[in-house]
């Protein structure tokens, strides 16, 4: 790991520093597209986070092209009826010209089927280790390795009962989730 804090620092010229900050924000935006894409089972949004030839090693569960991972995981997300949430934590981003090494912590909840074909609730803490590339003005994942630091699985909880017995608006898959309406409206 490079000593990012010793490079550039106070002596870094303003233009170079601004370019690095913009690159880091673009990388965070890519990570958010991935997280929302998984949570909403949104194929197009997920694809926008990977370069077409990007590779994915999903912690021993899947190893291959990122686009193939998307096709592998989407049916599982649909079976879980949209009960998924990725929370992204801190990211360590090391910009190396048109490339970047990125470590991002995540917490994940998913409703999935286990090997016995029973719906379960799966909670995972881990990290995305990404080699990212900028092409033109766009950053995307070129190579991803997912590291699972811990997990917990249990019986599927009945969320339909609501919080303290009171129904609440629940997230939905794809364009049926309220976030799509939010982003479709102009100020």
Labels describing this entry:
6 strands; Nuclear Transport Factor 2, Chain: A
Describe the structure.
With 187 residues, this protein is α+β, with helices and mostly antiparallel strands. The chain has one domain: Nuclear Transport Factor 2, Chain: A (Roll), CATH 3.10.450.50. It has helices at 14-39, 43-47, 66-79, 178-184; strands spanning 50-57, 63-65, 84-96, 99-113, 119-135, 138-155. It has a six-stranded mixed beta sheet with strand order 2-1-6-5-4-3. The longest helix is centred in the N-terminal third of the chain and has 26 residues, at 14-39. The termini are far apart. The model has no long low-confidence stretch (mean pLDDT 89).
Short description:
This protein has 187 residues and is of the alpha+beta class.
The whole-number mean of residue pLDDT values reads 89
State which percent range the strand residues make up: 35-45%
Number of strands: 6
Distance between the termini: 43 Å
Number of helices: 4
Q: N-to-C SSE series?
A: HHEEHEEEEH
Low-pLDDT ranges: none
CATH architecture: Roll
**Quaternary organisation of the protein chains:** single chain
Major sheet strand order: 2-1-6-5-4-3
Q: Gyration radius, to the nearest Å?
A: 18 Å
Helicity range = 25-40%
Which sheet architecture does the biggest sheet show? 6 strands, mixed
> What structural category arises from helix and sheet content?
alpha+beta
Shape call: globular
Q: Total domains, how many?
A: 1
Name the CATH class. Answer: Alpha Beta
What do we call the CATH topology?
Nuclear Transport Factor 2, Chain: A
